[in-house]
Amino acid sequence: MQIYWTKINKIIEESPEVKTYLLDCPEDFTWEEGSHTHFALEGFNAGEKPNRSLIRHMSISTLPQSNSIGITTRIREQCSEFKTILRNLEVGNEVAIFKTHSNVPLKREDKNVYLLSSGVGLATFRPLVLEYFERADNVNQIHSLNIDSSKDFLFTNIFESAPDKKFTSQFVDNRKDYYEEVKNLAADKDGLFYVVGSDEFLVQNIEVLREQGIKPTQIMLDKHKQQLSEFLSFDLSSETK
C-alpha cells in the first residue's frame, strides 16, 4: 500500500461549519470523479498498528485537472479528536492520503441521473457535476437534490440550475420536502439514483425509492460491493406482507 504524504496548499471556508482543504497533488497520484480516499493526520502510523482515530474515509471534491486534491468536511464546535486536530492545521502542514477508489463514477448510459445527498455529502457529487459540464456524452440530464438543515447550502456557484446544460439543482432544509421530492423524481422508472449521506440516510432513501418501484440496480451508493449488497438486498415484498 502506497502512502502519499502531501501538504495543504489552501483552506477554504465554505460555510461557518464546513471547510475544504486543498492538498498538493503528488506526481503519480490519480483519481476519477466520485472517488474517496483515506485521509490521515501526522502520527497515524507512528506505532506498530495504525492509529485509526487519526484516519477518516473522505470524498475527493475536485477533479484531477484542478491539480489539487480537495477534501471537504464539516467541523462542528463539539467534535472528535480527528476534527479538532484538523481544525488547527494550517497551510503547509502535512497530511497523508492512501487507498483511493471510486464507487460512484458518472454512468453514461443515456439515462437521467439523480444525485440525492445530505449536507456535506454534496462534496462527493461536485466532481461528477463538473465532469458532466465538461463532457455530457451519453447522459440525458442531471438533477441534484440536497437536504441541509443548517441552510448553509454548499457549492451554490456550481449547484445552480443551468437549463442549457440540462442540469437542475434543488436545496431543501427539511425532511418532509426532501422525501416528497424524492418520490416525484422516482416517477422516472428508468433513471439512475445516486445517494450519499449517513447510513441512516441511505436506508431511508433506498426504502422510498424501492417503494416507488426503483430497482436496486438503479441505485448507486458510495459503498464497497459487500456493503452495497447489504444495503440493497432487503426484500421489499416480505416487508409489506
From TrEMBL:
InterPro entries: FNR_nucleotide-bd (IPR039261), Riboflavin_synthase-like_b-brl (IPR017938). Gene3D superfamilies: Nucleotide-binding domain of ferredoxin-NADP reductase (FNR) module, Translation factors. It is an enzyme of class 1 (oxidoreductase). GO terms for molecular function: ferredoxin-NADP+ reductase activity. Keywords: Oxidoreductase. It comes from the Bacteria. Its EC number is 1.18.1.2. This is Ferredoxin--NADP+ reductase. It comes from Oceanobacillus polygoni.
